[in-house]
């Protein structure tokens, strides 16, 4: 059989395809080739932000814990939860507290209220009502919220989780199980309440909330990671490749790829997803300080997850982390690594300085500080002066920041005993916890020398 072609007919058909494609692009717009950004809420001069901020599912309301630098009460740091309507630019709600997180439907918000000087786990409805004491404070803060099998579920920074019956916790709470050495260290919950992001030896890990199935160690040295609404992506901030601050990265959990969303001179922190796939995040630079929204996030170039092992070694000595500084003469040494961009840093430094004074006469405990590469020197000096911090500083080279795991969360405190790093604790450590920690380490060192 002989097949013949009408070349003119083929050309006409091909032209029709091109015209149809062009018309489609004209109607729906060309596919974006890179993310675009909006500045949505500037911070006031001298205003800090305590850890994460969260965008409402529809992208309209931003909640963040505001801290006016220098606001101290009883040696602590004052914090206020603010809810801002990004369309009207109006302040919708304000109350002393921290750690706010939205419900999946955006109609409620859980937070740790500190009004009247008392800590209470609270839920605010957006008809204005606030329900207090919905769960015991000792279960932890830094909440995340999901819906599992139709039931609202709250996870805390301490690895405790509980369902809600209306606005009340169903007790007793449950705990996230350890999975072959992968604990629930400062976790965040997926929107379906089934998975969490956590850390293992300095890298980001995705795992089950209640079991150890389907564990993915991304191998990425990043900070706390927020799940997209479909559960396919996680977004977080991570050190820039040239160690000049922090950028926003997104990992595709299905394709095992990573995208870098931001490319700014300053640092970007703590991204949070809207339901339609945008990312809200905080930006700190000479050009702007405040909150931004990234559109067309997935148009950023994707690349395979790295094959290089980025885990922190199990055994580290003082000279591995701080070779530029002589090892302390005392048996126990504390080093808090902090950043000026983290408003938790002042509280951590204030309490570390109290510990240093408490143990000053013993001679076997030393307390020092180091700053990350995202902190400008002028800001470091300004903050130390404002809070009266006189603790000695030691240098921390950018290449050795990952050894401290400060890229997971700042501040972080390292405890060395007899020249070896024996434990890290992420986040600001309160005075009482620090004191017990140091006393136990000093007692172990004393016994070891008999």
Sequence-ordered SSE layout with sheet pairings:
Blueprint: H1 7-28, E1 36-42, E2 47-49, E3 54-55, E4 61-68, E5 80-85, E6 90-102, E7 108-113, E8 120-125, E9 130-131, E10 144-148, E11 151-155, E12 160-165, E13 168-169, E14 174-175, E15 188-189, E16 195-200, E17 203-208, E18 216-217, E19 226-227, E20 233-239, E21 246-252, E22 257-260, E23 267-273, E24 279-284, E25 289-295, E26 302-304, H2 318-321, E27 332-338, H3 345-358, E28 365-371, H4 377-386, H5 401-404, E29 412-417, E30 420-426, H6 431-448
Parallel strand pairs: 27-28
Antiparallel strand pairs: 1-25, 2-4, 3-4, 4-5, 5-6, 6-7, 7-8, 8-9, 10-11, 11-12, 12-13, 12-14, 15-16, 16-17, 17-18, 19-20, 20-21, 21-22, 22-26, 23-24, 24-25, 27-29, 29-30
What does this protein look like?
The protein has 450 residues and is α+β, with helices and mostly antiparallel strands. It has two domains: 36-304, Neuraminidase (6 Propeller), CATH 2.120.10; 318-448, 3-Layer(aba) Sandwich (Glutaredoxin), CATH 3.40.30. Helix content is 16%, strand content 35%. The chain contains six helices and 30 strands. The chain has helices at 7-28, 318-321, 345-358, 377-386, 401-404, 431-448, and strands at 36-42, 47-49, 54-55, 61-68, 80-85, 90-102, 108-113, 120-125, 130-131, 144-148, 151-155, 160-165, 168-169, 174-175, 188-189, 195-200, 203-208, 216-217, 226-227, 233-239, 246-252, 257-260, 267-273, 279-284, 289-295, 302-304, 332-338, 365-371, 412-417, 420-426. The strands form six sheets. Strands 2, 3, 4, 5, 6, 7, 8 and 9 form an eight-stranded antiparallel beta sheet that branches. Strands 10, 11, 12, 13 and 14 form a five-stranded antiparallel beta sheet that branches. The longest helix is centred in the first third of the chain and has 22 residues, at 7-28.
